[in-house]
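Hi F.,

I've been meaning to write this up properly since the lab meeting, where we talked about keeping a consistent format for the predictions we share between groups. The idea is simple: the sequence comes first, exactly as it goes in, then the structure tokens exactly as they come out, then a line or two of notes. No screenshots and no reformatting. I'm using this chain as the first example so we have something concrete to point to.
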Amino acid sequence: MPSAADLRRAAGAVVLAAALTVGGAPAPDADATTRARVCVKSTVVLDSPGGFTVGYLFRGDRVTISRRSKNRKWARVSTPTDLRGWVRAKNLCRR
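Output, unedited:
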């Protein structure tokens, strides 16, 4: 017959497993954002990768990267002035 301590340990493991299954831990980097700056003379900001121009960024402009395309060639960025769109990732560098 299991002792009371064994039953408490088993109950704790079941509760932990249920919490991870129901709520789950967030996916790695689910809400992660990265700060970067523009490292080229200028770059075009597009509404989608390869889409229409919505603005321009210039060397030294700071941006926040909210996501990247699957092929990692494009980055979704936003600026402190609320310009949002996609830029070529190769045109950005870490702070």
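Notes:
The helical segments are 4-22.
The CA atoms of residues 4 and 44 lie 66 Å apart.

If this format works for you, I'll send the rest the same way.

G.
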